[in-house]
Input
Amino acid sequence: MDKRVRQLSRGYGALFASIAIWSMPSLFQFYLVRYYEPFAQNFYRYSVACLAIAPFVFYRARRGGAKIDIHMLGLCLIPCIPNVIHQITQVVSLFYMGPGVYAIFNRSSVIFTALLALAFFPEERHIIRQWQFQVGTLLGLLGAFGVIWFQAGNGLQNRHVPWPGLVIAFTATFCWALYAVLVKRSSARLGAIRSFGVIGVMTSALSFPLTLLFGRIDAPLHAGAHVNLILVISAITCITMAHVFYYVAIQEVGVALAQSLQLLCPLGALALSAWIFHERLTHAQLVSAAVLLIGAFLAMQTKPAAVVETAENI
Output
């Protein structure tokens, strides 16, 4: 009994730590975008995260597991492509909306993950007949549209989101859902930590030429020491530590509960954004956010196994 109590305490501690940390990525990105354009920001954040995750990867490797060969590298490369697109487009989205609004809109990735899982995993297609999935999908999509459409007057972006911004935000969310589905196979073969370590290195490698071509590779030289320190902190906490905490949580308290409580992340992001950046949501946006979160919660009840890897913005 005492052992189980300790496991639950450790699991809940790790879970709420991951929720607190994953309330902050969009805020860090919103602040950093003034000094690091999207390409450089994501290249350097992922590079720092790779260095931070390396000890955990080596620790897991010493305990055995599947060998990382050419086939396994190819398996890890596939989800890296939508991940790179997601990382860039989510930062670009912050030019059109506040971090709180984007954090809420990104919760619709749960809906897209379910829809993509239907295409990639035939054994999960039975869920489309469940009323929770049908109602949750409809509410989630309506809520996501409302959060964006009723943005005017929210304090940060006093206008509707233009169509290019809506398309970019949708692309970011869809690519995150696609990544969540595609990473399932490599995670099952290598384990969550080793898989994330390999994918992190590949994501950094893919981001490097994009930064050379379209970004500013010398951004750290111009940003200043305090800004670079904030970037390092955001990478270590929001990418490395949050993933470690989350994987501990799903082992101790289960996937379903861990996924459900992740819906608290947008609320934390919105509260922090209101405090730091003075972002405000209109009444229509608040109603739409509630509809989206209810829809995401309903949809998640039908498919805990399909979204094990769906977590907030690396």
Observations:
- Confidence is low (pLDDT under 50) at residues 303-314.
